[in-house]
């Protein structure tokens, strides 16, 4: 099936993919920077292993994004199989990134001081907000990154001392997640 003979649904999905893939190019260096900032304190807390795991997984995620973007640029998105393949790649990549953000939040956030924890929350919510622009049009991509990214923040905040700041953070993170 050539691009000219795509059904209206496939044509819309293809355009959404073009938008997403254009933005995904910019998301790779941002992903790597966000991951580096997030795990920067880990070695000082005796968790160099976490920094290594996150660095490896996020490097793989970014390289995977670049590889499938290049492949679809070269091959085009002119039939249903390629469109579905691109959507699947984006969704799986989003799930990987979401799982890594969840790992960081569950393991690292409870051990951080106030300033480092604030930076963690800012990076996490910023990365999630950026994902809206690139992933929200592609299947369940946004949900696959947003829920694993933000729900652990809610859970860790609720497990923390029951002070107004932690309860407020949990409530606002949940509102942020539901609003997205």
Q: What would you say this structure looks like, in words?
A:
This protein is mainly α and 180 residues long. It is 81% helix and 0% strand. It has six helices and no strands. It has helices at 8-39, 48-75, 80-107, 114-135, 141-159, 164-179. Helix 1 runs antiparallel to helix 2, helix 3 packs parallel to helix 5 and helix 5 (141-159) packs antiparallel against helix 6 (164-179). The two termini are 35 Å apart. The model has no long low-confidence stretch (mean pLDDT 90).
Short description:
The protein has helices spanning 8-39, 48-75, 80-107, 114-135, 141-159, 164-179. It is an all-alpha fold and 180 residues long.
Brief descriptors of the model:
180 residues, mainly alpha
Q: Gyration radius, to the nearest Å?
A: 18 Å
Q: Provide a count of the helices.
A: 6
The helix content is over 70%
Largest sheet: none
Shape annotation: elongated
Distance between the termini: 35 Å
Order of helices and strands: HHHHHH
Got a strand count?
0
- Proportion of residues in extended strands: under 5%
Instruction: Give unreliable regions as ranges.
Output: none
Average pLDDT confidence is 90
